[in-house]
Amino acid sequence: MSDLIDDPRPGQNMPEYTVSEVSGAVKKTLEDQFGRIRVRGEVGRVFTARSGHLYYDVKDDRSVLACTTWKGQVSQLSVVPEEGLEVIVTGRMTAFGGQSKYNLNVDEVTVAGEGALMAMLEKRKKALAAEGLFDPARKKELPYLPDIIGVITSPSGAVIRDILHRLRDRFPRKVLVWPVAVQGAACAPEVAHAIAGFNALSPGGALPRPDLLIVARGGGSIEDLWGFNEEIVARAAAASDIPLISAVGHETDTTLIDYVSDQRAPTPTAAAEIAVPVRLELLGWVGDSQARMTRAVSQRMQTRDQRLRDLARALPRPENLLSGPTQRLDLMSDRLPRALTRSVDLRRGRLIESAASLRPSLLSRALAEQRRRFDQSATRLAPGLSRVVETKRESLARRADRLTLKPIERDLAVKQDQLEALTRRLSNAGQAQVKDWRSRLTALDRLRETLGYKETLKRGYAVVRGDGAVVTTQKAAQAATALEIEFADGRMTVGAAGAKPVTKSKPKPPEQGSLF
C-alpha cells in the first residue's frame, strides 16, 4: 500500500530510447525541417575518395558545413569545387548516425558572382602557363589552303551559317561539322571529345581527317562562355595535332582556349576569313604572276638573242671555214682511185709468188715427215710414263713406312694423363672454393637474421601500417581508415569496427623510420 502512495524517484517515468532511435529521429527531423536548400560560402578542404565520392567543406567566418557529392553526382556538376572558391551549393540536409554527424548532400554547385569566376580563371591560366601550354613556340602554322575544314559548334545557331556563308564567298571548301553544346555542363566534355575525335580520324578514310579545325561560338556572358574556360577543353586543344583556330565570343571576349589554340579569331566570321584566302584575289594574283613571268621570260629571250648575235659577228663565215677542207677533199678524191689500183696490183703479185711454192707434192712430203715424227714420239711415250709412275710409287712407299700411329698414341697418352691431373686439381679447388663460399653465406645469413627488423620486434617494438603504407607520424595515423600493427608473434588491425587479430604470415620489411 505504501508503494502506491510513495512518489516515484526523479526521472523514473521518462521514456527510454535506443541509440538508433535517437539517430533516426534526428535524421528525419533534419531532413523534414530543411529539405532541399541553397547555401553560400567559401570552399574549404576538398577530398576525393578512392570510390569517387567528393567530400568538402563550405564555410563562412564562424561556421563550417560538411558537404558530400556522390560519385554519380560529380559528373553532373557544372563547377567542381576548388579550395578558396566562393560558391552556392544546392542539396538536401541529412545526418550520418554512425558518427553523429550531419552534412549537405550537394547535387548542384554554382560560382557566387563574376569575381569568383575571374579568380578561378586566373588561377587556371597561371597553372596552364606554367606548364608551357601558352608558349608560342609550340603553336602550329595554319595551312594556306586546307582541303577539309572541321567546325566544332552548335548546328542550330547562326555561327555555323555565318562560317559556311563566308567560306562559300571566299573559297568553297569541304566542311565537316561536329555538333556540340556551346554552353552548360555538357559543353566542356563535348568540345574536348570533338577535338579528340577529329584528330582520331584517318587521312584518306571514309570520313577524311580535316586539315584545319575551327572551334566557334557566338558572344555571351562569362557564365555562358565558361565551358571554354574548362581545363579539359584547354588541354584537348593543346594536344591537337591538327592546327586549330578558336573563335569563341566577340572580339572583347577571351577564354582559355584562345591562349592554347594555334590562332585566335575575334569572331566566327573572322575565323572563316583566316582559314581560306579569297579565291578571286588568288586568281588575280596568279594571273599577274603569269603575266610577269611571261614578260620576264620574253625579255630574257630577247637579251640572250641579242647576245648571241653579238657573239656571232666575231666568228668567221662558214664558207671561209670550209674552203680549205673542201679543196683537200677534192685533191684526195682525185688521188684515191690511182692509189687503190696500185695497191691491188702489188698484192696480186705477192700472191702469185707465194702460190708458186705451194705445190701438192711438197705438202705431201711435209705431211709424211710430220706423221713419222709423231709415230716415233708415241713409241717412246709409253715406256717413259711407266718409269715415272714406278718412281713415284717407290717414293710413296718409302714415305708410308714412316707414317705409323705409335708416336701419335704415345703423345695422346701423355696428354690424357696431364688432362686427368688438371681435372683433379680443378675439382679440388672448386670444392674448396664452394665450401668457403657456403661458410661465408651462412655467416652472412646469421648476421642478416641478427640485424633484421624481426629481431627488433622481439625486443618490444612494433610496425604500424595504415591503408597499405607504413605510418610514421601521428597525423598519418589519424588520417588512416584502419591501422595494422605487427608484433613479434603476429599482426592485428585497429579500425572503426574495433580490433581483430590477423593470422601470422611472412612479414614485409618495414620502411626506414617505421619501428616504434
Order of helices and strands: HHEEEHEEHEHEHEHEHEHHHHHHEEHEEE
N-end to C-end Cα span = 67 Å
Approximately how much helix is present in the residues?
A: 40-55%
Strand fraction band?
15-25%
Task: Assign an overall shape.
Answer: flat
SSE-based structural type: alpha/beta
**How many helical elements?**
15
Oligomeric organization of the protein chains = single chain
How many β-strand stretches?
A: 15
Strand arrangement within the widest β-sheet reads: 1-2-3-5-4
Largest β sheet strand count, sense and barrel closure: 5 strands, mixed, barrel
Show unreliable segments: 512-516
Compute the CA-based radius of gyration.
54 Å
Enzyme class: hydrolase
Subcellular location: Cytoplasm
Main location: cytoplasm
GO molecular function: exodeoxyribonuclease VII activity; nucleic acid binding
